[in-house]
Amino acid sequence: MSYSRITLTVNEVVETVDVPQHMTLLQMLREKLSLTGTKNGCTAGECGACTVMMNDEPVNSCMVLAAECDGANILTVEGLAKQGKLSKLQDTIIKTGGVQCGFCTPGMLISATALLKRNPHPTENEIREALVGNLCRCTGYYRIVEAVKEAAGE
Amino acid sequence: MANAKSKEKNPTVVGASVPRNDVLEKVTGSATYLDDIQFGNNLLYARAVRSPHPHALIKRIDTSKAEKFPGVKAVVTGKDFPERIGLYLKDKTIFATDRVRFLGEPVAAVAAVSEEIAQKACTLVEVEYEPLEGVFDAEYGASDKAPLLHPDLGKYECVNFIFPKAGTNISNHFKIRKGNVEAAWKECAFIVDKTYKIPHIQHVPIEPHGAVAMMDQKGKVTLWASSQSPFAQRNLVAKALHISHSDLRVIAPLVGGGFGSKAGLTMEAIPVALATKLPGVPIKFILTREEEFYTNFVRQGLTIHVKVGCDKDGNLLALKNTMYWDGGASTEYGTNITRAGGYSSSGPYDIPNVETDSICVYTNHPIGGAYRGFGMSELHTGIDQAIDELAEKSGIERVKFLKQNAIAEGDIVVTGMTMHANGIQQCIDNVAKAIEFTKKEKPSTPDRLRGKGIAIMWKAPAMPPNPGSSAWVELSEDGKATVGLGGQEIGQGTFTVMAQIAAEALGVKYEDVRIAGPVDTQYSPYEWQTVASRLTWSMGNAVRLAALDARKQILDVVAEAWHETPEDLDIVNGMVVSYKSEQETPLANLVIYGLPKPNDEGWMGGPIVGRGSFMPKYVTNLDPETGQGPRAVVHYTVGCEGLDIEIEKSTGKIHVIRAGASFDVGKAINPALVKAQVEGGFVQGLSSALFEEIRLRNGVMTNPSFVDYRIATSADTAFPLDTTYVEVPQDDGPWGARGVGEHPMVPTIAALGNAIYDATGIRLDGPPFSAEKIFLAMLDAGKVE
To answer: Are the beta carbons of B417 and B784 closer than 8 angstroms?
Structure first.
């Protein structure tokens, strides 16, 4: 098996990792860096549970090869809170009750964070559009959308 | 306890929308689910060899090549695990032995150093099959023309309220014979006679099923599982593998969605079987999304024939209801869904004459198991649409028709039990108001049609007569309380609700109550299963009793120390106070070390541990020929939903304009969580109504991926959903509470079907109500060009 040595930034920490050629970004995060907050729901880029930010764009980390991430800047759910302080969106999703089983939550938070970064004041339709690749079976999405609206409110 | 109980005041924590106690870890990625637990470098990975045939005899299995493959540590097949298992009917084995009965059935399993090697080794297991004719339709399966799928059905062990018919494919036939249906038809002024088909669907938890098993050198097995049923799994695995219950430990971390799919025992047995061959080594098995779709439990399909009639004034007189449940290859769980469909077969209507045949049929389809609503969504899809048409025929306005016929306190329900007080009238009013049901409205544009639909529901917890709950409440040096329980947090918020109940009953702040998680059968008290919307009611009672027990122990010690009576004492926000002497002391002062006796004479009290247990004791079996008996179920939760929709004439696409949902929860322990359950359940119901179907062709699922099996996304719920609840107390629920977890998805298909009918005059024979189906039906009916 051939390995690549890559250097990348994950949640503002520079990491150098030896990754097998077939290893995905998701596997690298979970297995090599023990960042298990990012979830695996389908391994096919369809459910969005594994969404992370790669160079400011949300990606399904199960569809990205780790070897492609040399030099990349990755943000996962573990990197949203800074110095123990939750991000605005983490606060609002608690407040609105947008979390049930919590398995889609990390990917949902990343997609919504990416949206707010490129569009700080989205309309409800823009929010719903941005989250369409993140499946949630528990909530019906109402309180998640509400959380994004509230986070954008300030 | 009477003393402590007399001190109960108006609740302050119970009834408050406190924030969830599991949410900080969930938003920061630190919450631990099954696949997040670290097992070290010795961890092995399992994959399963699965049947490529829906029905075949197994002629030969050769595992030798797989065993020799580098990296493979163990290969197991059915010959080592012949014991039959099942929750209600023991009709399956961990691996197929002599015959496979559905495509995807496990035949063997491999443990290896990596998933890739395990998967490769699976392809090296040689299995020779002799394909057999299959059964792919329940009604055909029930006929004497169909091949027998379980020739030994008569020998299978089952509980005493399930009635398999040996020599057939019918694994349960539940009957209701109430009144005289044949005579009643003659009294009917209006009759509707319809057939509906409800397809198989999948639960689709976003977290796939997963389990890790390890056996130690003494033969003690630990199973970590994403599970709704750690105790039921302990029971089933122990029996299947002849392990003592005490030597089997199930640890159940947070569950990433269950909806019934993680109840009972399915894929979790596979790593356990492998673990018995490899002492000291943990083995992980996680289903792929494709396996998730059809190799584990699905919601079984239903064909329902409904004939229902009323008199000229719209009073329901008679119902004949014949249901064929497509139970799949095993009906170990499905037999009880059939039973639940039978004993609730009238829906929430007062009907004096009912004849029901609820028939569970083996087919060569995936195995039907518990799914949120447990038969009720399927049943109500038929009943509520037929009632809608009957209301129209009678000329009576829908809401009036529903209210006039809805089940009321004192009515004799379909099983002969007397109905308890309930808020269904208020639920109907709430929903009718939310969508202005009686107001006929124009579509927003001329190229659309508009319609409104409404449907009511009931559901009882479906379970054995005596499922138990237990709990303990202990206090620590800081005066805070920890609750031990065995029910699972699957997203519904039960850990939060149980903390509220304990806080209220004990007299401490909500923030000062911890839940002893994860549930671990070695330390946690017994809980039957996290199913049936039963936890708030059943486990809530156990937790309340445990907290009251702890409270009594505390007050007895303080009363003795202060020379007062417990009746004059109270616990308020963690302080023991006397209303008589106005003394007070924090719990931290006494709950571990007790209190000193005066004059250095020693000590009194000691560590406080309260215990509580609850089990309904009043449920009776029913007569197998008539389905009649004093009390079939513990209680019914009732509710109503309605939709206001528009349909594009050119495509058939449905746009929901607004919707309403209202349920009688007895008491909302946490109103925000009630609303969250109702929203999520409604959308899951809507998703099943609009999109979902496991497409089966000769036993093969043709759409096992999220691309081909679509569920509702954020774009599908861009409409206002009005959720309300009613509180008619449950006599034996904590503060009057009863469950509402499943109910919101029960009437949704019917309510949407009724709205489509109102908009188009078209009644499709079953969901999903796809744009294509609606458009073609409109075209056929000449409604559009």
So the answer is: no
